[in-house]
Specification:
Elements: E1 2-6, E2 16-24, E3 27-35, H1 37-46, H2 49-54, H3 59-64, H4 81-95, E4 100-104, H5 105-109, H6 116-120, E5 126-131, E6 136-142, E7 145-146, E8 151-154, E9 157-158, E10 180-184, E11 199-203, E12 214-223, E13 230-242, E14 247-268, E15 272-275, H7 286-289, E16 294-297, E17 301-322, E18 328-351, E19 357-362, E20 368-373, E21 378-401, E22 406-419, E23 427-434, E24 442-445, E25 456-458, E26 476-502, E27 505-524, E28 554-559, E29 574-578, H8 580-589, E30 619-620, E31 626-645, E32 648-669, E33 672-678, E34 681-689, E35 693-713, E36 719-725, E37 740-742, E38 745-747, E39 753-755
Parallel strand pairs: 8-11
Antiparallel strand pairs: 1-2, 2-3, 3-12, 4-10, 5-6, 6-7, 8-9, 10-11, 12-13, 13-14, 14-17, 15-16, 17-18, 18-21, 19-20, 20-24, 21-22, 21-23, 22-26, 23-26, 24-25, 26-27, 27-30, 27-31, 28-29, 31-32, 32-35, 33-34, 34-38, 35-36, 37-39
Length: 761
Amino acid sequence: MKKVQLTSRSNASEIQRVSKATLVGASSFLTLALCGAASAAARTAEEPMATAAAVAAPAGEQAAAPRSSGTTVVDEVIVTGLRGSLQRNLDIKRTSAGVVDAISAEDIGKFPDSNVAASLQRLPGVSIQRAGARGEPQGITVRGFAGDFNETLYDGRRISTATGGRSVDFSTVGADFVGGLSVLKTPDVSLSSSSIGATVNVAFPKPFDHPGRRMAVTASGSLQDDSGKFVPTVGALFSDTFADNRFGVLVDAMYTRHDTQTNRVFVSGWPGGRYAPCQLTATCTKTELENKTILGWFEQQAGASQIYTKDERIDGRIALQWAPVDGVTVTLDDNYSRQTIRADNFGYGIWFNQENLRNVKLDQNGTTVDFAQGGSQTDFVAGTDRSVLQTNQTGLNVQWDVSDNLKFEADGSYAKSWLNPGGEISSDNADVGYGFDIGPALGISIGGDSKNTLPVLHSYGPNGDAARWADTAVIGSHVTVRQAQENTDVVKQLRFAGSWEQEGFRIKAGGSYLEDHYKFQNSNTFANNYWQAYSGYGSPSGNHGGVLVPASLFTGRVSTNNFIPGFDGALPPYLLKFDAHAYQQYLTSLGNPQTKNIPGFNYGAGTVGTQFTGAFDLALDNGSIRDITEKTWALFVKANFDVDVAGMPFHFNAGVREESSRITSKGFGQVPIEIRDNAGDPTLLTVRLSDAQAVTTKSNYSYLLPSIDLKLELTESIHLRLDASRTLTRPGLNLLTPVLSVGTGQRVGALTASGGSPALK
């Protein structure tokens, strides 16, 4: 890393320029920042010149550099960035009421953090949760509590989350232009009911924070190893104040993109069940198979896939501030973010049913480490998953300092989040393959301790011929799934408070109203059972519930040679590439099977709802509909005073918050009335549901939440603190659905249903 700092302080219009270039592997990072002279002068005064000179060259070069006249020799170089940040955090923790950790914008800017979660992990007791194709930090864990057990606020306001949970996806919040982060590990009754983990408050910059004109530009990028593409990240911030600093405006925006390729080898499932003793051999009679006495766990599905992910994020913010008279500050701000993700995947998967397994071997833990399944189906899959997560929050805040002692504050905000605005197609997936008559006695082996060894396939390919693993001459149609999911979450919030402070005593009281309205619905080809229309693989597999897929639909292959470095398990030679949407269009081009004789059409499809029309139209899944509203009223009062006890400063802080919530939960209930086999695939089941009936439930609850914080300053650097409080962790709104949802497409041996409870509190 090389850092060059040029500073000039001759007049107010001069600027500081900082350039930094970092090369890590095949990635490059370049940053250019421009800011006002006042901040440049402040930082110049704070940073020792010896330290600035020392970091201009690598440590080895510093040691080898010749001494010259007029040059100060530095015997020891201390990098104070993280150390200084931790020291400032300790100072905040000492002076705050309650246990609070914080990190400032200055400290955030010293580290190459991709988002807010990566910055928060630098605080004690906070760790990050990674997810997605790149393993990007998306959530946090505080003292072992993750997800919905932590509360996140933007400038003290609840933010909407279209996922239906209480947790916030921090990957949608860039760290570059955040004003500061604080983690409250004990509750502040004036802020919220808190949570059992912690309350995270993300403070955004405002023009009055640093009066005058400020500008900042950041640019970075990465060079993709395989494609050679350069993927950019750019951002800009502008802030200025006018009319003797009585009016200010701040605007910032950032664009981020990441392209990722992920290779996966996986085993999913591991359900438990009982084997018949005959299944430990090669054959079983029907009578023998009924005597199931041996408990074991087996691999439900095995496969491999390659996923190409394109992740784009746009962040924008505008903040306006006005001070019409002394003591009054009006702030209007708007935060916007939009994340668009597209993932294209290609792979294969093999499904296993416990009753069909033979030559089973179990280890001492009951884990199935070897088996074979005759007539196994081999599925080649392709799909495109798209998601758009958009959030917008608008807020108005008024602060009135009536006097040095008396202050009032009012705040209102409106936030809305969308997952896939407009309900566009969010998923296109296709499944083709072969099986039954030409399916091999395919199985899985675990060549060692089941705790440390990945399972691998054996005896794959048509009739066990590995050379014909992906022979397009025998690959037929199977199932195709299309989905369009749409979520919205709207949060309306009003807060007011007043405080009085005089000679070491302070009291604050106020109240709030919050309304959170979450809606979810999913349209797909499961609801009308169109997804199974051409299942069965066709005549090459000895089943007429499908059609042969033209070889022209397959566009390429993905080699599995060195697919995952370090994985020495045997894999089939390659994956097939094809377009799921093109496959669906081909099947649609065959015409309407109700008026034309389509060879191999599975006429059992469509009986759940309307008859199949030939096109893979979507149907609304009534069981997925959720419409949940939560309304919460709160009142609080807190007081603190400072006295001396035995010559030592003593601080007393106590408060209480009363919260009352009312929940209205709506949905559509359907119950299974028939389950039957699928003619095109014996591993599939078709479930017929009753007509949908509207269900509405209501519930309410109230909690009294006290909090007390006692602190005794034994010495200037040693403080003794005692905290006791009661907090409230609310269930996610997506868990309050009043109905049970049962999918119309189920697997043999893997029946599933999902539901919630509006009575959770």
